[in-house]
Amino acid sequence: MAPKSDRQKKIFVLDTSVILYAHNSIMHFEEHDVAIPITVLEELDNFKKGNENKNFEAREFIRLLDSLSDSYMLHEWVPLNGDNKKLKKGKFKVLMESDSMLDAIRIFDERKPDHRILNAALKLQEEQVHEKEGKRVILVSKDINLRLKAKSLGLPAEDYETGKIKNVQTLFTGRTEQDKVAPELIDSLYEKNVCSREAIWGKEKPLANSYHILKSPKNSVLAYYNPRTEQAEKVEKTQVYGIKPRNAEQTFALHALLNPDIRLVSLQGVAGTGKTLLALAAALEQRSAFRQIYLARPIVPLSNKDIGYLPGDIKSKLNPYMEPLWDNLKFIQSQYRESEKEYARITEMVEKEKLLITPLAYIRGRSLSNIYFIVDEAQNLTPHEVKTIITRAGENIKIVFTGDVYQIDSPYLDSQSNGLSYLIDRLKDQPLYAHITLEKGERSELANLANELL
Questions:
Q1: Residue pLDDT, tens place only, 181-207
Q2: Does the pTM of the predicted model rise above 0.90?
Q3: Mode of pairing for the β-strands spanning 194-196 and 78-79
Q4: Which domain does 380 fall in, by range?
């Protein structure tokens, strides 16, 4: 059913994946109406217990629905603006399960929740055709396959767009390369370590905590724009806990990781660019400034099954997920002989839990003060999860997110909607934040070959 105009009111039917992505998604459809199939409520009932983000989202949505429907029946249209008449919101209702002319259960030969959701949306679409001012019905889902099934049945379907960045190809990289810089300015940076903003960039103001490769026909220098002093500062190559930066972008990353004025850092790049290794080495270098170092990562269940399906106790279940983090720690430790104090210090930090490697779900509810907090594989987080982590920041905390926005393991996220992309896009040019995109693989020539050609 084609829309009569761009301003025609619509009814958006939300599936379970949208609710688990953002519990307040129901409030983000402007003046349009929203419908929730009863099957979605049944599925949310299975998700309401637990400590993972999806469990939190399920509980919060159930509470939100309860507050909105305080004096209404849910099979009727309920105002989304509640008591606030100034809000320009539509209405919502719960769709009861009913047969439609096109039966998704029969067509796809399986009675599963997705097909029951499709039937509810198809029935609503049929009803709107006969309404005097019929509205366009659109299924909203984070599940690509469900959207394809809907479209095959003539039901318009869309992804949930709130929090999605427009173009990941133009995502902020945190660094620039500038040619034709006057040689005397570069000489001045080498001599004095600082140079005025105007001398290099004129009236143009660089983004806060941005990094620059400044080149002249004779020489070049690595520079950092300090938003507090509004000056360009020379960036030196720094070795941390036996790890040396191998290129300009790794040098920039270490500068951001070691800078006490920058409380939030994100590192984006393909496998082998050194994201986690650099973050961990920088954390060890600054161990005395923090009470604890947390290294965490989200658990993306294998084959979409909960980790409870894996054999063994909780430690055994989590080992496959945590092993890459231990590999990085062992690599740093291998830079020293067993007789050296740095080698022994790492072992001692792990034994005394000064350095703690743990799944991200186990971090929730803990105090995040006096902590160096590294979140690995951040591309598998939702924007709301990233916000939840950052908003828990207390005194003397540094948070580092690492990941590759193109390597998504979650079936309901992509390069535009994941939490790492959202963070980079929204927080650029903030004085407390720095970002670097790492592009050069430094793991090995073989790994680089695979990244480039396979």
A1: 999 999 999 999 999 999 999 989 999
A2: no
A3: unpaired
A4: 168-453
* Domain end (from 103, 132, 158): 158
**Co-location of 200 and 135 in the same domain:** no
Give the per-residue pLDDT at 360.
79
Judged against a pLDDT cut of 80, whether residue 221 lies above it is answered with yes
Nearest to residue 265, comparing CAs of 71, 402, 105?
Answer: 402
CA distances from 279 to 123, 253, 297, 381, 395 (A): 52, 8, 13, 18, 20
Residues 83 and 220 both lie in one domain: no
Nearest-angstrom CA–CA distance, 314 and 206:
48
Arithmetic mean of pLDDT, 20-46: 95
Question: Within this chain, do residues 51 and 127 fall inside the same structural domain, yes or no?
Answer: yes
Pairing of strands 91-95, 355-359: unpaired
pLDDT at 83: 64
CATH number of the domain within which 88 lies: 3.40.50.1010
What is the pLDDT at residue 272? Answer: 85
- Using 50, 70 and 90 to split pLDDT, how confident is the model at 36? very high
